[in-house]
Amino acid sequence: MESKYRHLYKLLLDKIDRREYEPGDKLPAEGELMEAYGASRDTVRKALELLVQDGYIQKARGKAAEVLDKNKFNFPVSEIASFKEIYRFSDSKPNTIVENLEIIKGDKKLMAALQIGAEDEAFSLERVREIEGEKIIIDKDYFSRKVVENLPLRAAQDSVYEYLEKELGLKIGFAMKEITVHMATDEDYRLLDMGSYDMIVVVKSYTYLEDSTLFQFTESRHRPDKFKFVDFARRKL
C-alpha cells in the first residue's frame, strides 16, 4: 500500500508537470495543503521534502516552497546522497555507464587526497550519468582499499553506497565539498553531450565514515546548464 506522503507527493508533482504550478510559483502553505488534502502536517512535510530532494521545489524555513525550473537538476551538495537515491521517486529514467573500474597505486597526488601512502591501493571508478537521454555528468570516485577492500561491478552499475552500507556494514558520516568552474577538457567533450558549452562545474568531495576515517575522494563534473546548487543559509549574529 502506498504511503500517504508519497501519494501527496505524486499529486503535487502532477500539478507541477501539468504546469498548474509554473517555475517561480509558490506552493500553498503547509496549513493550506493540510486542509486541501486532508493530510497531517507530518505527511505534508514529508511530501514537500521529497519534492526538494528530487529538485522540483526549493523550500526554506518560514517561507512558501518555490517551484524550480525542471530544466536544471537540483543536486544535494549539502547532503550525502547517491545518484540512485536522488532519482528514486523521479519519473525520468537516469542511466549509469561505467567507463572504468580498476585498482590503482603509485599516484602520489591521489593517495594524498585519500590520506594514504603512495604505495597503498585504491579503487578508481569512472561513471557517466545520462538523464533524459543526455550525458551530463562524469563521476570519478576513488575509494581507499584500507576501508573498501572489494568493489564489484554490479555495485558500480547500481549504487556503491547501498553496497557499502548494506553489504559491508560501513557507517557513512559526513563530507567536505568544494565547487569550482573550469574550462571543459577533451575528456568532457568526449564523454558528455556538451553542445555549445565550454565550461564545466566541478564538485570535489572528501567523504568520511562516522569515526572520521576518510574513505572516498570524488570529482564530479557537471554540464553547467544542468547543475543547480540550492541550500539554506542562516545569518549568524
Would you mind describing this structure in some detail?
The chain has a six-stranded antiparallel beta sheet. Strands 1-2 form a two-stranded antiparallel ribbon. The protein has 237 residues and is α+β, with helices and mostly antiparallel strands. The relative contact order is 0.13. The protein contains eight helices and eight strands, in the order αααββαβαββααβαββ. The longest helix is centred in the first third of the chain and has 14 residues, at 4-17. The chain has two domains: 4-67, Arc Repressor Mutant, subunit A (Orthogonal Bundle), CATH 1.10.10; 83-222, Chorismate lyase (3-Layer(aba) Sandwich). A hairpin with a 4-residue loop joins strand 7 (199-209) and strand 8. InterPro entries: Bact_HTH_transcr_reg, Chorismate_lyase_/UTRA_dom_sf, TreR, Tscrpt_reg_HTH_GntR, UTRA, WH-like_DNA-bd_sf, WH_DNA-bd_sf. Keywords: DNA-binding, Transcription, Transcription regulation. It comes from Lacrimispora xylanisolvens. This is Trehalose operon repressor. GO terms for molecular function: DNA binding; DNA-binding transcription factor activity.
> Which strands sit side by side, in order, in the main sheet?
3-4-5-8-7-6
Provide the succession of SSEs: HHHEEHEHEEHHEHEE
Provide the domain count.
2
Q: Can you count the beta strands?
A: 8
Largest sheet: 6 strands, antiparallel
Helix and strand content put the structural class at alpha+beta
CATH class of the largest domain: Alpha Beta
Beta-strand percent range: 25-35%
Give the averaged pLDDT, no decimals: 87
Protein name: Trehalose operon repressor
GO molecular function: DNA binding; DNA-binding transcription factor activity
GO biological process, one term: negative regulation of DNA-templated transcription
Keywords: DNA-binding, Transcription, Transcription regulation
